[in-house]
Amino acid sequence: MTPLTIRDFRPEDAEAVAAAHRAGREHLVQTPEMFVFRAARQPKGAHYRVLVAELDGRVVGAVRCGVVVGTTTTGVGHANGSVLPGYRRRGAFTALLAAAERHLAGHGVVELHGWVDDEPGSLAFAEARGFTAGRTAHFAARDLTAPLPPAPPLPAGVELRPASDFGADPRPVFEVEADAALDEPGEIVLDATEYDEWLAGEWNRPDHDHGLTVVAVVDGRPAAFSFATTDGADRYWSAFTACRREFRGRGLSKLAKLESLSRARAAGLRYAYTSNDATNAPMLAINAWLGYERCASERKFIKRLDV
Question: Considering the entire predicted model, what is its pTM?
Fold first, then answer.
């Protein structure tokens, strides 16, 4: 038996890290390419780092950590990760988490946030390491081979267009996100999102499907969108469905997401997944209308760090 080693991520670790991340979580749509992409990027002020655990000569898990950016709130960090089921209870994730906490504390983080599977073992693990349970989020799944609801009529002046139509200038789409993100449920208000960071880190991410992301345009102005990523095979993820506050109440988010799912179904994708905060009643209602069914949940945990 070789000793446990914690080290920085290398591109050749991507397949193993993705496998650990997805183990027991069919609702997560995450590709090895995205781990390479995220690890190679350093958003301004994020101090982002991926740490991996090696045990018995193989990569068995990882943690992704960094300082929360896109907000005027300071001193908050995030850490999330997983270990392959066959290698749990051998100290790997305890060591990964400790390394992440040291890294973040060194960059001024005093409050650490992480998401934990809503099952007894994971919840007990977090509580035993000084975390306090907070809000709940629910995952939902939909079989894309099953019929979708019939599309409601488009209101006057509304068009549904693929994000690829905005490839030359995505800023109007970004402005929808920046406005909608101010009302996202959570402990931190995302009130300082920067266009260049969004363009590099979200719009240009390798799993973003610009043909499946759908923008609802009102009288020529983007008002809502449903942002789609895929695994490049048969799985679809709704990364964010957003509507500018001045356009809410018109059903634009529902129309955009239905059109996005319709395009995904026509493209041959078979499984759709999404996630919502348990308090986000409007999106939970839209997803129920679209035929999504809850398949898993997770809890936010928060810990104060000594710096």
Answer: 0.95
